[in-house]
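Data deposition worksheet. Section B asks for the primary sequence of the deposited chain exactly as it was used as input, without tags or linkers unless they were present during the calculation. Section C holds the resulting structure in token form. Section D is free text for depositor observations; keep each observation to a single sentence. Incomplete worksheets are returned to the depositor.
Section A, Depositor: J.P.
Section B:
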Amino acid sequence: MIYLDHAATTALKPEVLDEMLPYFTERYGNASTIYSLGREARKGLDAARARVAAAINASPDEIIFTGSGTEADNQALNCALALEKKGKHIITSAIEHHAVLHAAEGLKKRGFKVTLLPVDEYGLVSPDALEKAMTDETALVSIMMANNEVGTIEPIAELAKVAKARGAAFHTDAVQAVGSIPVDVKALGVDMLSLSAHKFYGPKGVGALYVRKGFRVAPFVLGGAQEKNKRAGTENIAGIVGLGKAIELATGDLEARSQRILAMRDALIEGVITKFTGSTLNGHRTKRLPGNVNISFPYVESESLLIHLDFEGIMASSGSACTSGSLEPSHVLMAMGATHEQAQGSLRMTLGDENVDGDIVKTIEALGPIYEKLKAMSPLYQKGGKTLV
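Section C:
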């Protein structure tokens, strides 16, 4: 089995599971109680909060645990409701994850004006474009740190500076970034940042929202005093402990891990582009996540490629895991100027810690006969008047 879909999810690391297990069976107390079992749970909760804060250069009291990165994104966008005195205008980009785009649509239904910034052919958001879109009514700007489909890394520090100069709050969806590239909330200058444990070898069903000290957010789950009265409900202590351990591991040896994965990424990109005439890399060549490879293959549909790769024991994706069942072309690639055919023929292969150099060789070798077979069957290829292989 060759797993090339780490942008969708990652396997739980054994060290993370080891730290989580006692909180299911031994330290299972409610962290809101004052007896010893509850205090043990509270200790795990506090330790995890400190680990998350340290990983992104924040303070523990700036971390709010959530049920997912999607929940964190939703809450960040809904902060616009508390900023209505500033104005009812929010800005985001055309290539955001649907956790942000759909939340923005929800605000639109509540009377907010939503501006979607365009991107260039590499998926980059321009600070100049943001500056031109800003108005005195702009209350919130949300731009992702790294794109989940094409891996392009955005100039968040510059974008945040533009927004803050006009008095707007700034949020970044860093779900794909944390654990893959350095993330420093102070250097970025953001007010809010979202992350999710299962993207860096932690458990599913737990995420976090960084909220800068002094920036006020309204409660988003009512019914208890948990998470500083912001998210009521008994905490998922085992999951939160797992998040804390996973982020500590992921950021502790980040440079060495990233360099190893980046080398495999570049080998996969060069191997595919060289072997398959007409294939194109989607996203920026260098300003991209270390493990992200997104390539469009002419004449074929990505779904067919995925099925045939799966027969060979290779697992990849056609884009965002959250929309993989959709027949619509990627909104990210379309916003970047791709044709419908290019978007439908895109294959996302994302590398992780368990991949080795041999995986790259085997994947390129497997793609050869698969692509030739599908190309020969393609009406698009036949229409082009090519000689079938």
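Section D:
The chain has two domains: 2-8+254-382, 14-252.
The longest strand covers residues 89-93.
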